[in-house]
Amino acid sequence: MATRPRRLRNLNHEEEDDAEPFQEGHENLTDNENDDNFQGPPDIDGLLARMPRHQPRSPIKIIWPNGELRQVLGDFRVSNLLELQGGKKMVGTDENGVPNERSASILGQHLEQIAEKPSLAPLHIQRWDNDLFKTHKEKIIKDVEEKFAFPRQTIQLTRDWILRIVNNRWRAYKSKLKKQYFNREERSLDEIIKGKPPTVNEHQWRALVGFWCQEPHKKICAINSRCAKEQKNTHTTRRKSHARLKKHMEDERKRKVNRLEVWEVAHKKKNGRYTTDKVEALIEMSSDELEKKKQNNGTLSAQDFNEVFNEVVAKEVKPRGYYDDKYWSQVRVSQGVTFVTQTEEEIRYKEKVNAMDNKTQHMSGLMKRWLVFMSKKFPQEDFFDEMEAALQDDEFLAGGS
């Protein structure tokens, strides 16, 4: 199949304002630079020395409870999270709350580990939307937010994304267990139950095997298998999310990119060829439609690209997930899990109240020491009664005014 010209890149785009940087605010982070009670970063020179010398394109940012920020230029793995001693990895997100930076890969690996933990994602609950999963979802969010810091503006959407990713990894984990251990042609049901995986709870394994033996589950598996075989437009991004791909493209091109451009790159091989003839034909048709709009309007807007994507690509391949407007409009924030979150104004107000309480306690301690000193120096004077009378006079005058 011949390589086609990159016509989408040659089309003029309407200039758009840059998106606001995510560093403006992160959830659960406060500016308390002068508070000695907040934990600072540990001495991680030893940690950095043990890391490989590979220098990535972008650093990993880590922030500690006292607000101090450090950057790790070397390699950073999910196993290093436990060595941060209170520090959190900062994760940038897009407008949909989806992580879109290098740190997202570390988060993804951590979510995969969560999906395989019996205490956080148990296997004896048949469905993710079961009410029994509610407390486990809350534990998952708590675990993640103890290790990662996200922008406040989209924190609820990010929480929903986290739960959806864990759900997908949880289902993939069950599929892997079934493929490896549930071989009915070779072993009896008792042998399968007794031969449980070493990392799976015995009670949960027995319940999971029982689900697999039910007729409704068998029918669903048959449908899913048939649909997987019918998938013809596979992408080439592998483990890299389309949100990260979009962010990389925007950094590279110094402008915002649209769904059509992301979809094109996601279905193009390293040699420049498209994955299928159908993908190439759709890109060709999209380019022709954009050329017509450009001739009529003189320029192309983001709305033009979205219209062409919906009229040409979406109608033919029915893209889901990241490319589906309906998907984002129907996002269930945190999937029914209730989180009591604070707005930015509430956080600042709470900080001011705490600061005033600390100052009041400090002044109270100083006043007590001063009274003790004065009582010893002038034992004949009754400072306590005089101060109480003065305070009462002040309250009277204040009330009268």
UniProtKB/TrEMBL annotation:
<protein>
    <recommendedName>
        <fullName>Transposase, Ptta/En/Spm, plant</fullName>
    </recommendedName>
</protein>
<feature type="region of interest" description="Disordered">
    <location>
        <begin position="1"/>
        <end position="40"/>
    </location>
</feature>
<feature type="compositionally biased region" description="Basic residues">
    <location>
        <begin position="235"/>
        <end position="247"/>
    </location>
</feature>
<dbReference type="Pfam" id="PF03004">
    <property type="entry name" value="Transposase_24"/>
</dbReference>
<feature type="region of interest" description="Disordered">
    <location>
        <begin position="232"/>
        <end position="251"/>
    </location>
</feature>
<feature type="compositionally biased region" description="Basic residues">
    <location>
        <begin position="1"/>
        <end position="10"/>
    </location>
</feature>
<dbReference type="InterPro" id="IPR004252">
    <property type="entry name" value="Probable_transposase_24"/>
</dbReference>
